Structures are given as structure tokens and as C-alpha cells.
């Protein structure tokens, strides 16, 4: 089995200010220095040394970017589909809608599965958040938020709380209760505060922390109990539209994709941007890690889904077809990582063979665009949320 | 200061979510090619004929051929073309879909294409409705009437202008030849069906919220912007990377290893609950079940992370470590995880507890880490933060992974688990049985209840431990009858 790559963030005294804090290992003209993030910011702002103009800086940065591409190309000795020639071809699929969840009165924008593999939470444009038992089609809990366009919702790992956020610029956590008469709004905890809409949120390995991404271009890690901001992540130059936590046991990283066509990998401890991928031609709507944690896929408005390898530091596959011209809004992998499910704005879901790069199936059924796709935690089913006010479970 | 255009603007500049429009136009141009495009025929009205009408089935056939896809997909694509307003139906003009029969369609003139540089304004809509009202009173539909009344109220100050424009357009139209007039009326009507959809229909023009930042805008590129890019790029260059053959090989291997465990690729035993409405599969795979299934146990052998992430696997591993008297490693690792992901308020307390239990000299469950890591950790504990135990935790994790994990897989504990693991028979339901199953769907225990049960369970175990500790204390003080001395 492949080893998890441990991001070696060092801790200790900063070489510039001496305070003990998580350090960013950066290089100034190939010389390694260890500064804390504050000192790095100070240093970047003290530029224009030696009479450099903005134009010459631009030229220098473009040269560096070319050099990076060269470095990446040096280790590029084989393509994914070549290695995948040995893998067996996939047979025909008989994936059908097994459940149709009706109940939202407006576009369903987001959904998330519970770890018990049958419950899920969904949020919609009119502010309603509903917790369903998808197996029996029962609605178990419902909350109405005071804002519209609830674009992010997440189920806590324990199954006892849900987090949601949207145009209210906040992400709130609602502890669920079995008492049908209790108004869940009463126990609501406002955790995250952004300066613009919240586009994505997820719990970390416990109920105590949430990670959010926002239209203001930042991601942030919050402590649920106190609402304290633990770490913020700056680096995107436009709205951040999606994020996903790395699935590994010891990794402390997550990936985010934004309107600036970049997908960035971040270290949760130091707030540093570790890797960046800029090959998309349009907004990245969704990012999702490969189950092993060494790669991720992204879905974009340029109608392609791309697959990036983190250890080789490059894009290894593009999933596109002539007949697909509408943007992809959401992606997810099946349990083994062999299949990539992608929901598009032309109301269909395409199923791609990750290794060979071909499309194996198309799923029709929705009457408006598919806003979110998630495979259940044990891989037995796929749930798709759509702007036609319904959710479908496919298997 | 940038002033945002708040009107719906279908130009490509601001909203790349409509990046599909440029691609659609290319396809449209191909479709209109006189030789290789869609076959067109004249449409016969009462006395006039209008050229270049195309049938739904021809469109679908052409698309299926061009993109090498099947008819269902070609039909979806065609319907999107109609929904966006590039092709409009001549009969049943309010339903913007492609019908796979001889119903007629026509290409929309580029003047009315969605990508034109001007936004779709209410003023134009008001003029259009007024014009139709002039032509024949009472022709407006209910929703159009409502729009008309609303616009009349809101644009009252401009109403003279609007009526004047409408009259002028009506007069100019009368001077055209009948076929041209009919065509233009159809085109205009189709345009407004797309941009002011009747209630209850889905509009393809609906793209959701605007992005906050305009990615096409030329922001002021300050020096520190470039400096930041350079620092980051330099760091990326120096970052160690792996040969593609190695990392891609690992990805392919992962797929291969998990292939048989993926319910989409391989049957799950006994059956997939979503297909047969039978939850045996879930019951057999509950987080803390007594006897796990063979597939589950197989997954524990794939990687150490897999073993630890499964609660049943972790229990099994814990049992093995207890027998080897090295359970403190796992306990320490769990304590560190608890610290990392726990509440911010309890960090200090937890860190101290872990130090006293595992790291201090003479601690009851002392763990074996190398001197340098111990030094770094103890220094960090003076000002405990969330990640203070990270180096020690990583060290212990690698220790367990490289040493204990291997021995666990060869141990009697594991072999016993493997022997006892069950392999359920595949279900074979008849149609009648499946219907029965569907009727017998029952809700499961809520996670809230499960968590309460777990808490009670843990409290009971803690109480048991207390009792045994009390008993052993009593026996030390001689208050209990000592066992007969062994000779």
C-alpha cells in the first residue's frame, strides 16, 4: 500500500522574530528559511528593493513559473492511461434511481451523508435544511434558516449535529434532538463568520471543528464550542467554491477549488498553501480527494473534470467529451476510486472510468441541473441533489 | 471602485458559468451548414411557405451522428439547445424541448442569441408586450398580463416612450412582406419565452448566484502580488516530487486492491440494501459488531490506516497489543487524536493528562520515543497548543505501522478473527419477496440514541474498573481473605 506523505511542518522559533509557532519552510533564491507566516507577509510587502519595477517582477515570476513546469515535466515518464492498460475493462452498468426524495419546495443546493450510511442532510434555496432517512424516505428533522441559498451543509461524524451556511455569511451548527416538538433553532450555535457567502463546509474527524470555504476568497478552520477562528487560509484570488478534507489518518491537509481556476492544497496546521494546480480553463466548482488521499479530482465550468496526482505534482487525466459542453458542478469517487461520478448543468450525471479516461455510463432523470453528488460512506449508493427540488439515490 | 452590473448580462465577460454558450454556438454553425448540416424543408402555412424548418427527429439524428452518441443523449443535448434559445419550436412554442418526431423547429437568428452583449431589459419586454397588445387586445396570456401590469406600474414614467416605440415597431412590421413578418414574430416570441419563462417551467438561463469577484477583471498587480507568487513558485520548485510511474502505479494498484470491495463494481454480500430493501448487509457491518465479515477483515490487511479507522479493527488491534503489553502506544495515539480534534478549551488539560500518563519519567504507561522527539515535545508542552504532540504522535504511529502491524497480522488474535469471520450467502429474492421487502422497510436507531447508549456503556465499564480497583486495594490492606499461598 502506498505510504501517506507526511507534510513535515516544523514547529519552533521563527528565524526572524523568534516566537515559537508553526513555521513555513520557504526558499528565497534556493536558500531555505523558516519564518512564521506573519514574518513571511512582512517580507513580501517590503519589496521594490534594488529598483525593480512591477514589469520586471512580472517577468521574473513568469520565468519562475516556466521553471516549475520544467521541473514537473522532468519526472513525467508515463501517462495514466498507459499504466491503466493492464487494468480490466469495466462491464456494462445498470445504475437506476432507487429512491426519489421529494419534499423540498425549492432548488436543492447541497447534501451530505451521515456515517450510518442511510441518513442524509440536504439544504435548499428557500432556507430549509432537512435530515432524511433515505432508506425509508422519512424526514427526521427540519430546520428553517433565516437566509436563502443555503449552499453548504454537512453531517457531523457522530451523527448528532448538522452544520449549514450560505448567504448569511455564517456557518451554524445545529445539535439534533429526538424531541419532535423542539425547535432546533433554539440550540443553534453560530460558529463561522465570513465577510461573504459560505460556499462549503465540512466537519473534521470530530464534531468539534468545522472547515468552511467562502465567497470572500478564504477558507477557515473553526472551533465549534467557542466559535473561535483557529486558522485561516488565504491564497485564492477569487471566490472559493468548494473544499474537501484529505481522507488519510495522519494527513492534515485539505484541497480547495475556486473561481480563479486554481485548486490549492493547504496544511491545516500552519495555514500554508502547499501545492497549487492551475490547468482548468474556468471556475472550479467542486474538488474531491481520491480515496487513498494521494490524488484529487475537480469539476469545472469548462465542461471537464480533471484528475491531479499530488505526489507527482501534476494533472494526470482530463475527462471530457465533444458532446459534453455544459459545466460540471460536482464530482465524487466510488469506494475503490475506479469510478468518477460527475453531475453536469445539462441535467445528466456522467460516470467516468478514472484509470482509462473513458465514459462508462450516463444517468438521466433529473429535470434541472445537478448541484451536488455524494457516494454513501460504504459505497453502496450515490445521492444526487438537483435544482428540480428532488434528491435521487442511485445504485 | 467597480460598479457591478446588476442586470442579467449574458455576455461572457462576467459569468464564466455560461462558458457553454460559446461552444454551443460552434455546434449551431455546423448545424446550419447547407451541405453537412441538418436537413431543412419549407413549412406550409395557409397561403405562405416559410423556408428552413427542421424536424425534431432530424436534429436528434444529426446530433447523434456528429457526436457519436446514442439517441437519448442526443435528445438531451437538443433539448438544451432549445432551452437556451438557439432553436425554437414552431408548434407548442412554450415547451422548450426537442420532440423526437416530425414537429418543426427553426434556428434562431443571431440577433436573439443569448450571448449578445446587451442585457435583457425590462424596457424591451414592456415594448414587446405593448406591441402585442396593440395588435390584438386580449392576446396576452395570464402571466404576461401580470408582467404587463407590473411593468406598467414600475415604468410609468417611461410609459409614453414605450407605447410610442411599440406603435412604431408595429407600423414598421406591417410594411414587411408576410413571410418575413411571420418569421420575425416567431423569433421574437421564442426569444421572450426563453428569457421570461412562463411560471412552472425550468429556465436554462438560471445560473444561480453571481460570483463575488470578476475573474476577468484586471486587478492592480501590486509588487507584493508578484513577490508572493515568486515565493510560492520557488517553494514549489524545491518541493520533492515523485516519478509519475511510481505515483500513478500506486493509484492504479489502489483501484485494483479495492475493486472487489466496491459495491458499484462487485456484488456486495448478502445483497445491496438499496437494491433489495434488505438491511442484513448493514447489520452485519455495524461499527462494533461481535463477529465481522470476511470482506471487512480483508480490508484491515490493506493498510494500517484502514485497520485503525474501523472501530472493530481497532478493538482487535487493541486486544493484540494488550497481550503483547504494548497497549500504551495505541492509547497514546488515541489521546493525541483526541487532543488534536477536541475542543479548544480543553487543550491544556488534555495535554497535561497525556504528559502525566505517557511521557513523564516514571509515568504509568510510559511510551518509548527517541530522545530528540521527547525533548521537542516536552519543550512544546510548556505552551501547549493543538499540535504540540504531533512529532511524538507521528513517531508512535510509524512505530506501530512498521512493527506492531506486521506482527498483528501473524498473531493468533488475528488468525482467530479471520477464522471466525462470516461470509454471508448471497440473497436470491423472487419478485414477490422483493415487493414484500419494500413494504417492510423499517427505520433504524437514530445516531443520537446510539451515542447515548455508548456513553452509558462506557460509564458502566468505568464503574467496573473502579470496583476492581477498590477490591484490589482492599486485598492489599489484608481486609480480604488472602488466597492460599502457592508452593
TrEMBL record, chain A:
InterPro entries: G-protein_beta_1-5, WD40/YVTN_repeat-like_dom_sf, WD40_G-protein_beta-like, WD40_PAC1, WD40_repeat_CS, WD40_repeat_dom_sf, WD40_rpt. PROSITE patterns: WD_REPEATS_1, WD_REPEATS_2, WD_REPEATS_REGION. Residues 54-81 form a coiled coil. SUPFAM superfamilies: WD40 repeat-like (SSF50978). Pfam families: WD40_Gbeta. It comes from the Eukaryota. Keywords: Coiled coil, Repeat, Transducer, WD repeat. GO terms for biological process: signal transduction. Belongs to the WD repeat G protein beta family. May interact with RGS9; this interaction stabilizes both proteins and increases RGS9 GTPase-activating protein (GAP) activity, hence accelerating the deactivation of D(2) dopamine receptor-mediated signaling. This is Guanine nucleotide-binding protein subunit beta-5b. It comes from Cottoperca gobio (Frogmouth). The lineage of its organism: Eukaryota, Metazoa, Chordata, Craniata, Vertebrata.
From TrEMBL, chain B:
Keywords: Signal transduction inhibitor. It comes from Cottoperca gobio (Frogmouth). GO terms for cellular component: cytoplasm; neuron projection; plasma membrane. The keyword Acetylation does not apply. This is Regulator of G-protein signaling 9-like isoform X3. The gene is LOC115025026. Residues 303-418 form the RGS domain. CDD domains: DEP_RGS7-like. SMART domains: DEP (SM00049), G_gamma (SM01224), GGL (SM00224), RGS (SM00315). Residues 34-109 form the DEP domain. One of its GO terms (molecular function) is GTPase activator activity.
Amino acid at each position: 500500500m502506498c505510504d501517506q506523505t507526511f507534510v513535515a511542518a516544523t514547529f519552533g522559533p521563527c528565524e526572524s522574530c523568534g516566537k515559537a509557532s508553526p513555521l513555513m519552510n520557504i526558499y528565497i533564491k534556493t536558500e531555505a528559511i523558516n519564518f512564521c507566516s506573519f514574518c513571511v507577509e512582512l517580507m513580501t510587502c517590503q519589496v521594490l528593493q534594488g529598483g525593480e519595477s512591477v514589469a520586471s517582477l512580472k517577468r521574473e515570476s513568469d520565468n519562475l513559473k516556466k521553471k516549475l513546469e520544467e521541473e514537473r515535466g522532468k519526472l513525467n515518464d508515463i501517462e495514466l492511461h498507459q499504466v491503466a492498460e493492464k487494468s480490466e475493462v469495466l462491464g456494462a452498468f445498470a445504475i437506476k434511481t432507487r429512491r426519489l426524495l421529494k419534499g423540498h419546495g425549492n432548488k436543492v443546493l447541497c447534501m451530505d451523508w451521515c456515517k450510518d450510511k442511510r441518513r442524509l442532510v440536504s439544504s435548499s434555496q428557500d432556507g430549509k435544511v432537512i435530515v432524511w432517512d433515505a432508506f425509508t424516505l422519512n424526514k427526521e428533522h427540519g430546520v428553517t434558516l433565516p437566509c436563502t441559498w443555503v449552499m453548504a451543509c454537512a453531517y457531523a461524524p457522530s451523527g448528532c449535529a448538522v452544520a449549514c451556511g450560505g448567504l448569511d455569511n455564517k456557518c451554524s451548527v445545529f445539535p439534533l434532538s429526538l424531541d419532535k416538538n423542539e425547535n432546533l433553532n433554539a440550540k443553534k450555535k453560530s460558529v463561522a463568520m465570513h465577510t461573504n457567502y459560505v460556499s462549503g463546509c465540512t466537519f473534521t474527524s470530530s464534531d468539534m471543528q468545522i472547515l468552511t470555504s467562502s465567497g470572500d476568497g478564504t477558507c477557515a478552520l473553526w472551533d465549534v464550542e467557542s466559535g473561535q477562528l483557529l486558522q485561516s487560509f488565504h491564497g485564492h484570488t477569487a471566490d472559493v467554491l468548494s473544499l474537501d478534507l484529505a481522507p488519510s489518518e495522519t494527513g492534515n491537509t485539505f484541497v480547495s477549488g475556486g473561481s480563479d481556476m486554481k485548486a490549492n492544497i493547504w496544511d491545516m496546521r500552519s495555514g500554508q498553501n502547499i501545492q497549487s494546480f492551475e490547468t482548468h480553463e474556468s471556475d472550479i466548482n467542486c474538488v474531491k480527494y481520491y480515496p487513498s488521499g494521494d490524488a484529487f479530482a475537480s469539476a469545472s465550468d469548462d465542461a471537464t473534470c480533471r484528475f491531479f496526482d499530488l505526489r507527482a505534482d501534476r494533472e494526470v487525466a482530463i475527462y471530457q467529451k465533444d458532446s459534453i459542453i455544459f459545466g460540471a458542478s460536482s464530482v465524487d469517487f466510488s469506494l475503490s476510486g475506479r469510478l468518477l461520478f460527475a453531475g453536469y448543468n445539462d441535467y445528466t450525471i456522467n460516470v467516468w472510468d478514472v484509470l482509462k479516461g473513458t465514459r462508462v455510463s450516463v444517468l438521466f432523470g433529473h429535470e434541472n441541473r445537478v448541484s451536488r453528488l455524494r457516494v454513501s460512506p460504504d459505497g453502496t449508493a450515490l445521492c444526487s441533489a438537483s435544482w428540480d427540488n428532488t434528491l435521487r439515490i442511485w445504485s | 471602485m467597480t460598479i457591478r452590473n446588476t442586470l442579467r448580462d449574458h455576455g461572457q465577460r462576467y459569468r464564466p458559468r455560461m462558458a457553454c454558450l460559446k461552444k454551443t454556438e460552434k455546434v449551431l454553425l455546423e448545424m446550419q451548414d447547407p451541405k453537412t448540416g441538418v436537413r431543412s424543408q419549407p413549412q406550409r402555412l395557409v397561403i405562405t411557405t416559410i423556408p428552413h424548418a427542421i424536424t425534431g427527429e432530424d436534429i436528434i439524428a444529426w446530433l447523434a451522428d456528429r457526436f457519436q452518441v446514442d439517441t437519448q443523449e442526443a435528445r438531451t443535448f437538443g433539448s438544451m439547445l432549445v432551452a437556451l434559445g438557439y432553436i425554437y419550436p414552431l408548434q407548442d412554442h412554450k415547451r422548450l424541448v426537442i420532440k423526437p418526431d416530425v414537429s418543426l423547429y427553426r434556428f434562431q437568428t443571431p440577433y436573439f442569441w443569448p450571448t449578445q452583449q446587451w442585457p435583457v431589459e425590462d424596457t424591451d419586454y414592456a415594448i414587446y408586450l405593448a406591441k402585442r397588445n396593440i395588435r390584438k387586445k386580449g392576446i396576452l396570456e395570464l402571466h404576461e398580463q401580470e408582467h404587463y401590469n407590473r411593468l406598467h406600474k414600475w415604468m410609468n414614467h417611461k410609459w409614453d416612450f414605450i407605447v410610442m416605440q411599440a406603435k412604431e415597431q408595429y407600423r414598421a412590421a406591417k410594411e414587411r412582406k408576410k413571410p418575413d413578418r411571420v418569421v420575425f414574430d416567431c423569433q421574437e416570441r421564442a426569444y421572450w419565452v426563453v428569457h421570461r419563462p412562463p411560471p412552472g417551467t425550468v429556465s436554462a438561463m438560471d445560473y444561480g448566484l453571481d460570483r463575488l469577484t470578476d475573474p476577468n477583471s484586471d486587478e492592480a498587480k501590486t509588487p507584493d502580488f508578484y513577490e508572493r507568487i515568486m515565493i510560492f513558485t520557488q517553494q514549489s520548485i524545491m518541493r520533492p516530487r515523485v516519478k509519475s510511474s511510481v505515483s500513478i502505479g500506486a493509484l492504479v494498484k489502489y483501484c485494483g486492491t479495492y475493486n472487489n470491495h466496491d459495491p458499484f463494481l462487485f456484488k456486495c454480500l448478502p445483497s445491496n440494501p438499496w437494491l433489495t430493501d434488505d438491511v442484513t448487509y448493514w447489520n452485519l457491518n455495524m461499527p462494533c459488531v461481535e463477529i465481522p465479515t470476511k470482506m471487512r477483515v480483508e480490508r484491515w490487511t490493506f493498510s494500517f490506516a484502514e485497520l485503525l479507522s474501523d472501530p472493530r479493527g481497532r478493538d482487535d488491534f487493541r486486544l493484540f497489543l494488550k497481550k503483547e503489553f504494548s497497549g500504551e502506544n495505541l492509547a497514546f495515539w488515541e489521546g493525541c487524536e483526541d487532543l488534536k480534534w477536541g475542543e479548544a478549551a480543553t487543550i491544556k488539560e488534555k495535554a497535561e493528562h497525556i504528559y502525566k500518563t505517557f511521557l513523564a519519567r516514571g509515568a504509568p504507561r510510559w511510551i518509548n520515543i527517541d530522545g530528540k522527539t521527547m525533548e521537542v515535545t516536552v519543550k512544546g508542552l510548556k505552551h501547549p497548543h493543538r499540535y504540540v504532540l504531533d512529532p511524538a504522535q507521528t513517531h508512535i504511529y510509524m512505530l506501530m505501522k512498521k512493527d506492531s502491524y506486521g506482527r498483528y497480522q501473524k498473531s493468533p488474535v488475528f488468525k482467530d478473527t479471520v477464522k471466525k469471520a462470516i461470509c454471508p450467502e448471497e440473497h436470491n429474492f423472487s419478485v414477490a419477496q422483493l415487493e414484500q421487502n419494500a413494504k417492510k422497510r423499517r427505520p433504524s436507531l437514530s445516531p443520537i440514541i446510539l451515542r447515548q447508549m455508548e456513553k452509558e456503556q462506557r460509564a458502566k465499564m468505568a464503574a467496573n474498573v473502579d470496583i476492581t480497583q477498590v477490591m484490589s486495594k482492599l486485598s492489599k490492606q489484608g481486609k480480604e481473605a488472602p488466597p492460599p499461598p502457592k508452593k
